Amino acid sequence: SEGARRGDALSLVVVKETMASKGLIKRVRQLQQKKYRSQTNQFVVEGSRAITEFIKNKDAFDCVHLLTTKEQAEVVVHRGVLDHVVDVGPRYQSVTPSEMSKMTGLSTACDSLAVFQRKLPDETAEEVRQNFRDSQLSLALDSVRDPGNLGTLIRLCDWFGMRNLLLSSDCCDCYNPKVVRATSGSLARVRVRYADCLGSELRSLRVPLVGASMEGQSVYDLELPLRLKDGETAPDGAGGLVLVMGSEGQGLSNEVESALHGLVSIPSYPFEGGDVLDGDNEAESLNVAMAAGILISEMKRRLWEQR
Question: Hey, how many other C-beta atoms are within 10 angstroms of the C-beta on 3?
Answer without folding.
Answer: 7
